[in-house]
Amino acid sequence: MNILIIDGQGGGIGRQLVAAVKAACPRATVTAVGTNVSATTAMLKAGADQAATGENAVAVGARRADVIAGPIGIVIADALLGEITPVMAAAVGQSAAKRVLIPVNHCDNIIVGMPDQPLSQLAQEAARRIAEWAD
Prior knowledge:
This protein has helices at 12-24, 37-45, 55-64, 79-82, 86-94, 119-134; strands at 2-7, 29-34, 50-53, 67-71, 98-102. By secondary structure, it is α/β, with parallel strands linked by helices. It has a single domain, classed as 3-Layer(aba) Sandwich (Rossmann fold). The longest helix is centred in the last third of the chain and has 16 residues, at 119-134. It is globular. The model has no long low-confidence stretch (mean pLDDT 92).
């Protein structure tokens, strides 16, 4: 299974997702794509099998992935303080992969009906859902 994890800014959500997914799905290939070098580096340090940075890396990774995971902003153009380009959002949204989106209320995107939960719990729940598909 090919899992693509996308994050931006400092890569904190992606770092936690990579660690949780690697623990839950040890045989899966985890590719980390950051919108910037800081995010990519954080996810690589967390154990991603391979990593890249930028718009084209998101587009190529989305075509090859079985599962895409990241904060909900990865499907919203101009989210993450402008780091998610329209091309990135479209690539994720149009991918045939299953998407696991972390509900984060930042950057003027508010998800109603979701109780506030610690990011660590959200990452663990995302990894659990991805592991269900890996079997």
